[in-house]
Amino acid sequence: MRYDTPSLIRWNARAYDSSFGYVSAQGAPLVDLLDPQPGERVLDLGCGTGVLTAEIASRGARVLGIDGSHSMIETAIAQFPGLDFTVGDGHDFTVAEPYDAVFSNAALHWLSRDPDAVIECVRMALQPGGRFVGELGGAGNCAALIAAMLTAWREHGLRDPHLPWYFPSPAEYAVRLERAGFTLRLVENFDRPTPLDDCPNGAADWVRMFAPSLLEGVPVGTMESLLRRVNELAAPALRRESGWMADYVRLRFAAVRQ
Ligand SMILES: C[S@@+](CC[C@H](N)C(=O)[O-])C[C@H]1O[C@@H](n2cnc3c(N)ncnc32)[C@H](O)[C@@H]1O
C-alpha cells in the first residue's frame, strides 16, 4: 500500500530521531501500559521512525507500523528491516485482519482533520475486546509556545497561522471514544515540561521542526526576525538556566472495543 496524504506536514525523519528522539523515549511507559503479549497482533498508528514499534516487537508481539509520512516509513524500514511498516493516513485506513491492540504515541494530535474518523478506523481495525492505548497532546499543550507564535505573527503583520493540531480535554476525548463504542479503562492528563536539549535556538528550533507548515507562507526576509521574536516572547515562560523547556500537556488513555 502506498498513497499520498497531502495534508500531512513533511517530516524530516533524520532530524526527528537526532533532535526529537525524546518523543519516542518518553513513550516507553505507554508501551508498558499497552503490555504487549507474545504473539499478539499490534498496530502502531503514527509510528514515525519505528522506535516504539520495535520496542513492542521486542516483547514478542507482531507489529505493523503505519505512518502518513513516506520519509518516516523509509527510515523505519531502514532501521528495522525485520518489521512491517506501511504508509497510510490514520483518518482512512483498513486492515485485512483485525488486531488485538492499536497503539499510538504522540501522533493523534496530528490527525486533526477528523478525530472521529480516526477513532472509527481504529475501532474497525480491532477485534471486539481489542485495546486502544494512546498518548497525545492534551488541552493546553504548548500554550506558551503557541501564544508566542500568535503574537509574533501578528506583530509582523502576518495572518494568524492555521494551527495543525488537535489538543482535546480528557472529557472531550473520552466522550468521542465512548460514543464510538469503546469502554474507557484509564484516562490521565498531566503536565510534562520537556527539556529541548537539542534546540540550541530554543522555541525557534521547535517551530521549525514541529510547525513547518506555519512557516510556509512567511516571506524569506521576515523569517529570521519572526523566529527571533518567538524566542523573545516565549523565553520568560520556557527558558530556564538549564535550557529551554517545552510546556507539554499529555493526555494518556486506554480503552477497549466493546
Ligand atoms: C511526533 S511523531 C511520533 C512518532 C512516533 N509515534 C514516536 O513516538 O516517535 C508524529 C507522527 O505522526 C505522523 N502522522 C501525522 N499525521 C498523520 C496521519 N494523518 N496519518 C498517519 N500518521 C500521521 C507523522 O508522520 C509522525 O511520524
Automatic annotation (TrEMBL):
One of its GO terms (molecular function) is methyltransferase activity. One of its GO terms (biological process) is methylation. CDD domains: AdoMet_MTases. InterPro entries: Methyltransf_25, SAM-dependent_MTases_sf. The keyword Cytoplasm does not apply. The keyword Transferase applies. Residues 42-130 form the Methyltransferase domain. Keywords: Methyltransferase, Transferase. PANTHER family: TRANS-ACONITATE 2-METHYLTRANSFERASE (PTHR43861:SF1), TRANS-ACONITATE 2-METHYLTRANSFERASE-RELATED (PTHR43861). This is Methyltransferase type 11.
